[in-house]
Amino acid sequence: MSVTTLKKQKIKESLKKTKEKRRNQVPKVYQLKISYSNLNKDQKQWLEKVFLEAKWLYNYTVADIENRLNPQTEKLKQVEIKTPNGYEKREITCLSSQMKQGILDRIKKNLSNLSKAKQKGIKVGKLKFKSDYKNIPLKQNGITFKVLKDKNRVKIQGLKKPFRVLGLHQIPENSDIAKAELIKKPDGYYIYLTCYIDKNQIKKEKIKKPIAIDFGIKHQLTLSNGIKIKYSIEETKRLKRLQKKLTKQKKGSKNYFKTRYKIQREHQKIYNRRKDIQNKIFSLLKRYEHVLIQDEAIKQWHSGLFGKQIQNTGIGGIISRLKNNLETLISVDRYEATTKICSNCGNRKEDITLSDRTYRCENCGLVIDRDLNSTINILKIGLSKVETTTIKNLPTDCGKVTPVERKASARILESNPYIRVSYASVKQEAPNFS
Ligand SMILES: [Zn+2]
């Protein structure tokens, strides 16, 4: 057998092995942020330049796809680009040939998508030039990039010093790192890492105990095990200051664009914080086999007094994710008087207002956190509607948090500095017969 056939055979075998392995794995993308404060001058310059070169290469190729979309272009050290002064040459020094290959592969893929759409009768245009290239493919682990997990760093081909990154701790042990992308966003640079994770490692035991949620203003979420989750991401002072500054600057001036860019970055930062909180809360709730909510009139809240507060909490986002993603979500009619009824004896109390944070039952002596009382009512009403008998009964430990639940909430929620977790109280007093 010749050397090349032997080589081909080896590649074929290894591909087959990978395919078999992937059957028991699921892909997951992890977001790593490049720590900007730890960058040296070379790294900062390289990051700026590499995205510029990616744009040049992309536009150069798209300008003449027929002649330029080929392996020859991957080897180019110089491209020609159109400027207001005519064509000028630009050196390619940061993009490695693997990165160039990745960019060309993407163009090929976009073209084939366009032609598929065309075959279906959809009207399609041509590939457009880009004014900014924000996403560079890093194809091969070990070649274009290397993860140095114990050092919290990622090395990228062509750059001597590895980048210090945040977020490597999220990646489980024994996962296969497949590919990565280098991303430019208004708030900084990121590496998106695609990993393959063992299915068994993902499939954690679900918590069998059903859980009900009350969405409130003061504590955004109260769970029927007594966990109260509080958070709020408000517009930062910096954002307000920048917005004020912008109104005083000359439209279209250099400083105007500078400020506008800073505002974008600040918005992105706030958005990311909010998103992360939503993700964390959702992943905690996902652990439960049955989740119950009352179909709140969020829209009414929005227009009312609490509009701004609700917007800052993103409660709407959490509810829609629950509705879209949980097969076992049970929802209770919004008109059920869950705040007025005693969850212990069923006595109804009419004179409870929004400022009463504690529910005191004159009939049975229950003194309970107001929102926790509501969640237990939601649980009771919801479970009574369920067809399957397995969860029909109210769990005996409802209102209490189990060690498993406490551990899960600590692991998932407490890694985010904007989330505060506390526990609601319940006690039994002698009934008041006065
Ligand atoms: Zn009562």
From TrEMBL:
The text of the family note is: In the C-terminal section; belongs to the transposase 35 family.
Region spans: Disordered: 1-22
Alphabetical list of Pfam families matching this protein: Cas12f1-like_TNB, OrfB_IS605
Gene Ontology molecular function: DNA binding
Task: Tell me the NCBIfam families matching this sequence.
Answer: guided_TnpB
Q: Which residues form the Cas12f1-like TNB domain?
A: 328-378
Q: Which domain of life is it from?
A: Bacteria
Query: InterPro entries per the record?
Result: Cas12f1-like_TNB, Transposase
Record-given protein name: Transposase
Kindly list the organism's lineage: Bacteria, Pseudomonadati, Aquificota, Aquificia, Aquificales
Answer yes or no on keyword Zinc: no
Per the record, the GO terms for biological process are: DNA recombination; transposition
Q: Does the keyword DNA-binding apply?
A: yes
Give all residue intervals belonging to the Probable transposase IS891/IS1136/IS1341 domain: 200-294
Q: Which UniProt keywords apply?
A: DNA recombination, DNA-binding, Transposition
